[in-house]
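Field log, afternoon session.

UNIT: design team B
ACTIVITY: writing a sequence onto a fixed backbone
BACKBONE:
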């Protein structure tokens, strides 16, 4: 987690421009773009197939395009579900889909 002691306008117009690689992983994104040059559609993002907090690799092979709303929803649910676990805890199956009662 990173605290940025600036108003949003200064962050957006200064920090993101001057420190694009540190703030946005610009060079990492450009490496991914070299593997998938099609423009991202509205509502798409580049995300980790296996989130880093679940032991996913921080590499190009673990990146892919996905629906941004779904990505944030699933990542948030996974993070909430694992936040209290001790480091190194093994997680079994993860199922994504409708729950039937």
């Amino acid at each position: 987690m990173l605290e940025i002691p600036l108003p949003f306008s200064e962050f957006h117009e200064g920090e993101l421009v001057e420190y694009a690689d540190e703030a946005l992983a610009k060079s990492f994104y450009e490496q991914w773009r070299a593997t998938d040059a099609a423009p991202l559609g509205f509502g798409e993002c580049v995300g980790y197939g296996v989130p880093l907090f679940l032991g996913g690799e921080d590499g190009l092979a673990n990146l892919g395009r996905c629906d941004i709303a779904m990505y944030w929803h699933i990542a948030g649910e996974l993070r909430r579900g694992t936040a209290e676990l001790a480091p190194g805890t093994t997680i079994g199956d993860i199922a994504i889909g409708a729950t039937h009662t």
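LOG NOTE: Residues 52 and 61 are 13 Å apart (CA to CA).
NEXT ACTIVITY: expression trials, pending approval
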